[in-house]
Amino acid sequence: MSESATARVEHVRDDALAALARTESTEDLEAWRIAFLGRRGHLTGLLRAVGSLPPDQRRAAGEAANSAKSDLESALAERVDALAAGEGLNTGQDGAIDVTLPGWPAPVGGLHPTTLIVREICDAFNSMGFQVVEGPEVEWDHYNFEMLNIPKDHPARDMWNTLWLDYEDEAGETPMLLRTHTSPMQARIMEEQEPPVRVVVPGKCYRYEATDATHEWHFFQIEGLAVDRGITFADLKGTLYEFARLVFGQERRVRFRCDYFPFVEPGVDMSIDCFACAGDGCRICGETGWIEIMGAGMVHPKVLEGVGYDPNIYTGFAFGMGPERIAMLKYGIDDIRLFYANDLRFLSQF
Ligand code: DAH
After folding, report:
1. Range of the domain at 74
2. Ligand 1 neighbour 226 (Cβ under 6 A)
3. Looking at 179, 181, 198, 300, which residue is catalytic?
4. What is the DSSP track for 78-129?
5. How many CB atoms lie within 10 A of CB 248?
6. Given its phi and psi angles, is residue 60 left (phi above 0), alpha (psi -120 to 50 degrees) or beta?
């Protein structure tokens, strides 16, 4: 850059500073930034031209252009602060502070859709006498599997493949994992207290899973457990029916079908009649008229024995559901991955 090129840098710098002093708003600032510091901005152009100067001039010219650049950047930062301070104080046209002008609305956050639905579901069970309890996301194999009647070589473990922790106990085993469901809290709670037990357990779970529109590798579950003298399958049905009506509408009907989970006997899956088509069959219910919303069953005697409850005296029911899936149904969300993609366009709709 010749003498005149260095002078050009000075020139651009002075112009830029003068223009910056005239900016009044965020839009002005952005336009200014683009004009001088943007990819095709005046100063950027000069910086780029340094490379094509004769070698003996490059150094001085580069230094001049770079120092102008950092001057402009710090001037911009100062101007941003100055304008922000002025705006915050509600300056009137002449720049004087007018405390009677209305304030600038601050952007207010909202609750995450998962939080909203978890609260709604827990509130529904709360109204039926269930307490809300939370548990550890890092769990022992012992609680995640063994205490739930899923021994080491049990094929049902395939249903709950997960992420193991690189941790060994004294026996050289690696028994810690990211919990695959919230069911382990069943045993933890029963070990700690005598019946009656009525709890719901919301919390995060993890699985070694390929993700798609209906599968995430991390998600929430809400576990439920009720144990007392004389609890029957009719209590399970009544409680879950009431839940479905509270969350999905008073006109809901429910259906229970046999299913297998090692920690319940008998085990069921519960469906509600499709609220979109009222059971006629549509895209949401896969043309069946029914939507599966959770697994449930009568607590297996082995699980009760494992925690020291006498299965001849006590019986109970348990259930587990995925709140994101419930939210997807309720709010018409078609991809579970949206929940944790942190896209404000999605999140701000709730
Ligand atoms: N833990 C089960 C799962 O992750 C869900 C479940 C099914 C929980 C049946 C229960 C139950 O308590 O009784 O698939």
Report:
1. 3-84
2. no
3. 181
4. HHHHHHHHHHHTTB-TTS-B-TTSPPPPPP-----HHHHHHHHHHHHHHTTT
5. 18
6. alpha
Contact 121, 326 (CB under 8 A): yes
User: In this predicted model, what pLDDT tens digit does every residue of 46-84 receive, in sequence order?
Assistant: 888 888 888 888 888 889 889 999 999 999 988 888 887
Looking at the fold, whether 193 and 342 belong to one and the same domain comes out as yes
What are the backbone dihedrals phi and psi of residue 167, each rounded to the nearest 5 degrees, phi first? -150, 135
What is the distance in A from the centroid of ligand 1 to the CA of 296?
Answer: 6
In this structure, are 167 and 37 located in the same domain? no
Same-domain check for residues 286 and 140? yes
Quick check: pTM over 0.90? no
Q: 280 falls in which pLDDT band (50, 70, 90)?
A: confident
Q: What are the pLDDT digits (tens) for 201-258?
A: 999 999 988 888 888 999 999 999 999 999 999 999 999 999 999 999 898 899 999 9
Closest by CA to 114, choosing from 282, 338, 344, is: 338
Give yes or no: residues 223 and 284 share one domain.
yes
Of 68, 84, 100, the one marking the end of a domain is: 84
Name the domain count of the chain.
2
**Cβ(319) – ligand 1 distance below 6 Å:** yes
Active site residue 318: yes
Domain match, 71 and 181 both: no
Establish whether 268 is a catalytic residue: no
Instruction: Reduce the DSSP state of residue 192 to 3 states and report it.
Output: helix
Tokens of 247: 């969350």
Residue 102 in any domain: the answer is no
Q: How many residues does the chain have?
A: 350
Which of 347, 331, 346, 288 has the alpha carbon at shortest distance from 120?
A: 331
Q: Is 216 in the pocket of ligand 1 (CB under 6 A)?
A: no
Are residues 170 and 40 part of one domain?
A: no
253 is catalytic: no
DSSP character at residue 12? H
Ligand 1 atom 7, closest CA: 295
